[in-house]
Recover the amino acids of this structure.
């Protein structure tokens, strides 16, 4: 059984604030499976509301690098 | 007598890297009173060199404005260039940026890929036919960057030379003001004529799409101003990155070898070169809207703030061993494209261009090397030029 910090790392819920988004496209390049850009306004849209396993680290990197802090994560 | 211009510490270089003095500042005083910016001598100026502090300033468009400061609202308006995103703060900035962002999505850029590849291959053909030695800046980096930006804008590719000449004059702060104004007017006229054609028959290219989709909500001045801002960034910043990135790889044969063995590393290599070189050494100056305390210093309302992107990118808070070029590292959270709402609009295009260029260049010329001793490579560092670049890059193969 996985306990402690490992379990927390395992799965995160993702939120994207489209108002803050500056459409840098960075998240789409880093984790194309999770983030997308709208054709309408170039801003972020989510393909999925959560990430698990290997993807978590990359989603964290995308969130920390987002130029406008538009991506927020919460532990499940 | 000519004025002697002091090159500020954040603009000076030790070859590709920062000078030691900048490193020392970061270590001892990440926010420090700076040499004043010419023309704004009466305003106290700060230099910010720490990664966290740079991100804090650039990420806070509420407390740090980017529009040109002036003594009055009217003066400030006068200095603002319509369509130049870097001259506007929220909410006006948002209105403009929203119009432009759909034209720069990652997906849209991928559609340009075959056209960019064709331009890159054409100039590699020409260089190969002409034979060594070559000046990689003049024969490759500059025309490739110029034609790609023309292609994106939707103006004839062959116009790149005339647009580049105007653009170079406009950006060259050492030229008389009158000449620069004339170059600016030349560009405005060029794009005004192009717009007239587009209003009659909009095409599918970037400016055509803007005319089609934004109609009258985008003024003539804004459309031309936006085109000029794109042109300048596309010409100068991109050709600088092509030349300097090539030089950095040639000077790190182990890294170049890795890239040859593992072409899938090219995306990482692009990020690392952007970080390592930081062609734009310092972000456009910000002005504090209120008193702000940062790293123990009190930045007063109205003070100017210069954020050193180069220094932030070489801060150990960005990545381990920041002064080492390592294309295998996890892409570091660099600020080469800036940070916050003014993050480079053209970043997806720049990344794509770099990737295609480095791949194609080293594949075409596996034996590419400098034609002169490394110490004879002439860098372009001058206070009148915002972007760090090369005067020339002589190569043989």
């Amino acid at each position: 059984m996985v306990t402690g910090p490992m379990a927390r790392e395992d799965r995160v819920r993702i939120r994207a604030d489209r108002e803050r988004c500056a459409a840098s496209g960075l998240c789409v390049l880093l984790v194309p499976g999770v983030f997308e850009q709208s054709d309408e306004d170039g801003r972020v849209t989510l393909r999925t509301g959560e990430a698990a396993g290997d993807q978590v680290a990359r989603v964290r990197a995308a969130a920390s690098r987002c130029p406008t802090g538009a991506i927020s994560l919460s532990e499940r | 007598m000519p004025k002697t211009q002091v090159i500020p510490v954040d603009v000076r270089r030790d070859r590709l890297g920062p000078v030691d003095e900048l490193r020392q500042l970061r270590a001892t005083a990440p926010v420090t009173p700076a040499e004043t910016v010419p023309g704004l001598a009466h305003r106290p100026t700060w230099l910010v060199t720490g990664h966290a502090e740079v991100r804090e300033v650039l990420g806070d468009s509420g407390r740090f404005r980017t529009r040109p400061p002036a003594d009055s609202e009217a003066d400030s308006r006068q200095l603002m260039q319509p369509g130049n995103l870097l001259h506007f703060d929220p909410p006006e900035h948002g209105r403009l940026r929203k119009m432009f962002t759909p034209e720069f999505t990652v997906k849209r850029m991928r559609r340009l890929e075959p056209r960019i590849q064709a331009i890159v291959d054409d100039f590699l053909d020409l260089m190969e036919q002409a034979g060594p030695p070559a000046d990689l800046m003049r024969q490759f980096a500059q025309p490739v960057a110029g034609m790609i930006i023309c292609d994106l804008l939707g103006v004839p590719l062959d116009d790149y030379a005339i647009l580049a000449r105007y653009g170079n004059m406009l950006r060259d702060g050492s030229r008389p003001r009158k000449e620069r104004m004339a170059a600016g007017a030349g560009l405005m006229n060029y794009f005004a004529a192009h717009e007239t054609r587009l209003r009659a028959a909009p095409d599918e290219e970037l400016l055509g799409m803007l005319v089609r989709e934004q109609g009258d909500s985008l003024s003539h001045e804004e459309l031309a101003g936006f085109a000029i801002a794109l042109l300048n960034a596309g010409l100068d910043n991109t050709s600088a990155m092509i030349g300097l990135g090539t030089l950095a790889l040639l000077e790190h044969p182990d890294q170049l070898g890795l890239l040859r063995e593992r072409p899938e590393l090219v995306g990482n290599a692009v990020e690392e070169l952007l970080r390592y070189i930081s062609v734009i050494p310092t972000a456009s100056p910000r002005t504090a809207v209120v008193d702000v305390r940062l790293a123990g210093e009190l930045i007063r309302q109205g003070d100017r703030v210069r954020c050193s992107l180069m220094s932030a990118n070489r801060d150990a808070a960005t990545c381990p061993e920041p002064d080492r070029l390592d294309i295998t590292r996890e892409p570091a959270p660099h600020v080469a494209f800036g940070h916050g709402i003014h993050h480079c609009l053209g970043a997806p295009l720049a990344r794509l261009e770099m990737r295609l260029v480095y791949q194609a260049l080293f594949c075409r010329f596996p034996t590419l090397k400098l034609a002169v001793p490394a110490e004879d490579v002439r860098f372009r560092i001058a206070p009148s030029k915002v972007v760090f670049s090369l005067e020339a890059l002589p190569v043989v193969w």
Summary: The domain at 72-280+339-396 of chain B is CATH 1.10.630.10 (Cytochrome p450). The longest strand of chain B covers residues 45-48. Chain B is about 50% helix and 10% strand. Chain B touches chain A at residues 59, 97-98, 101-107, 267, 330-331, 333, 337-345, 347-348, 351 (CB under 8 Å).
